[in-house]
Amino acid sequence: MKGVTAVLLAGGQGTRLHELTKAEAKPAVFFGGNRRIIDFTLANAVQAGIENLIVATQYRPETLHAHIPAQWGRHFPSDGLILREGMATTARGYLGTADAVWANAAQLDALGTEQVIVLSGDHVYQMDYAAMIDAHRASGADVTLAATTVPMAEARGFGVIEADATGRVTGFVEKPLHPPTLADAPGRSLVNMGIYVFDWRWLRAVLATDAADPLSSHDFGKDILPVAVHSTQMQVWRSGAAGAEPYWRDVGTLDAYRTAQLDFQSGQPPFALPGLGAPSAHDALQFGFSLGIAGLSLRAPRHRPDAAHRWTLLENSVILPGARLGTGVRLSNVIVAPGTNVPAGLVVGEDPEEDARWFRRTEGGTTLITTQMIVRRAMSRPSRLPLSGLAPKFAPLRA
């Protein structure tokens, strides 16, 4: 990895995760117990032997600035892990993904950077960055981007790539209404994974031009890659065995976030979760017995386990750290936010209209429960009001 510097973009809010990112940046959201989404990218960087890593943060950076050095600092040289918060790096903050790299150009120069690998901190995947960097160097290209295939309908939310038989990129369009498909895989499109290797000399010149353009959004997908397609050699790189796509998930929606976590709770997880920290003990403290199979979890309370009506039933649901469940709870397709106390006997996931009245329910059928929603529901119960009062009306929370 001599001459390689990684820039990890970790400043996004992730608005489609709604209340989960009200107080946290998207990369800092919990995933797989006490881990954070960003830990997948950090684990990949450590495995590749990358020694120089600049982490660009912006929205609600406090958790990341505490978590990253504490959990990952020992894997880098003393001066190799650099946290650069947007408003501290430049008075206006980072204006876009490309601008986040340009704002750190002096730091990249000082590190003697020859190739820069740009990473995103909000995807769940396992990848060999070293192999991608080796392929980039061997190709002689100025730009290499990692790609995978998705169904055409899903490709509308990504940058879509066209490439020839040699892997040279011939076309790139960001979030098209009508994505091009692959000749050898009808119905599937080749999409950008948000992982790039650049020759720094080339990228530095392009970023300087982009920074001076008042009409630019300073975004890699919208501004830099389209230029690269027409002005230089850009190669596509696909990890994994031929004909097999690697596990890669954009967990930017509540539905995708919940189902990806369920993948790792199954009997055959896609790969091992990043190994850091101790597992949360709150589950063991709450329950005396737990049985799980195929997305279904049945848990007995620590006290009076013989009382059948007090058992807790969870189906395809995710309980985030610090949350506590009352006895007799039944949850289906639910995310319980960190620190939320779910009252005894609550049933969610069986009556969509009732769920949407109190909680945030998506069109895909995922329901998010937070402390504020529980309080809102409790305050509106008729038993909490004067005898002459009526329960107030609340509009449903829409995803």
UniProtKB/TrEMBL annotation:
What are the protein's UniProt keywords? Answer: ATP-binding, Carbohydrate metabolism, Glycogen biosynthesis, Glycogen metabolism, Nucleotide-binding, Nucleotidyltransferase, Transferase
Classify the source by domain of life: Bacteria
Q: Which GO terms describe its molecular function?
A: ATP binding; glucose-1-phosphate adenylyltransferase activity
Annotated Nucleotidyl transferase domain residues: 6-264
**What GO terms in the biological process aspect are recorded for it?**
glycogen biosynthetic process
Q: Which residues form the Glucose-1-phosphate adenylyltransferase/Bifunctional protein GlmU-like C-terminal hexapeptide domain?
A: 309-369
Q: Which residues form the signal peptide?
A: none
Q: Does the keyword Membrane apply?
A: no
Instruction: Note one Pfam family from the annotation.
Output: NTP_transferase
What does the sequence similarity comment in the record state about its family?
Belongs to the bacterial/plant glucose-1-phosphate adenylyltransferase family.
What is the name listed in the Swiss-Prot or TrEMBL entry for this protein? ADP-glucose pyrophosphorylase
